[in-house]
Amino acid sequence: MRRWIKNFIILTSLLLVSCTTPVLPSSSTPLSTEILQTAGEAIVSAGEVAAGAPVEVRTAFGDVLEVFDAHNLSLSERRARGAAVKVRSLLLGGHGSGTYMVAYNRRVVVTAAHVVRSESVMAIDGRDGETVVGKVVFVDQDADIAVLLVPEIETRTAIQFRPQKKYDERLIGTNLTYTGFPSHHDLLTIRGYISALEHEMVVTNMFGWFGSSGSGVFDPHGRLVGVVSGIDIGNIGYRIPLESIVWVAPTSQIDHEMLKVRILASDPHDLLINAFPGAMAPRRGGVRD
């Protein structure tokens, strides 16, 4: 009888320990940006591991009560998909893709420089017919990256601008994802990986096609590696597009101090707000990809 009571006390203690809420730091405890960044990456990494794994609800005796199917997309993939926009020319026709982000406390869209070409404003399509006008505030033609200042896009969720500033052999093999609008498709989420670093560009193995230029390419930690710049062209007596070899313009190659100055120097109240509700985008576009 005493042994039974002793076992019961031990079991009860274990249950109490397992249900105890961990002590969190108080709001007065200072946390550096580096610590917060590392913690954020750890959470995303945990989401990567759990992506696609079903969650089982069991009784205390191990019986399965219900099975919930988890997302097949990782956290960074879901965020990228929720922030993807279509970037359209108001004058020349055609479209590319972009990512709705927050950089230096301003709403921006990051895309490819050859998508905006020489234009100063572009139409930005969200969802359900929502269209706003974005003002081009930064263009690096050599790196093929452009940034537009935009008003709030109600049908999209902006994600934090966290560029990958590293550019070396350690990147090779990194898994990547982007969501864009290749050809006539709507919100295609693509996966791939870094195959090589050449000519100050990132060479990847993943799908790309007309209209996907400017799509934000993210690593598993949610860092912006770059934007889709173009697809490879093979030559076997005639030129043929190799849509599985995609060139990515890396964010590591731009002047981030200049980008910050350009964004902060732009007046967000100077935008042409909410231009074209219900505007239709062309079915195909892009000149470089």
Task: Describe what you observe in this structure.
The protein is an alpha+beta fold and 289 residues long. The chain has a domain at 84-270: Thrombin, subunit H. Helix content is 20%, strand content 35%. The strands form 3 sheets. The chain has a 6-stranded antiparallel beta barrel with strand order 3-4-5-8-7-6. Strands 10-11-12-15-14-13 form a 6-stranded antiparallel barrel. The protein is globular and about 65 Å long. It starts with a helix and ends in a 24-residue tail after the last helix. Residues 13-50 and 273-289 have low confidence and may be disordered.
Question: TL;DR?
Answer:
By secondary structure, the protein is an alpha+beta fold. Helix content is 20%, strand content 35%. The longest helix has 18 residues, at 33-50.
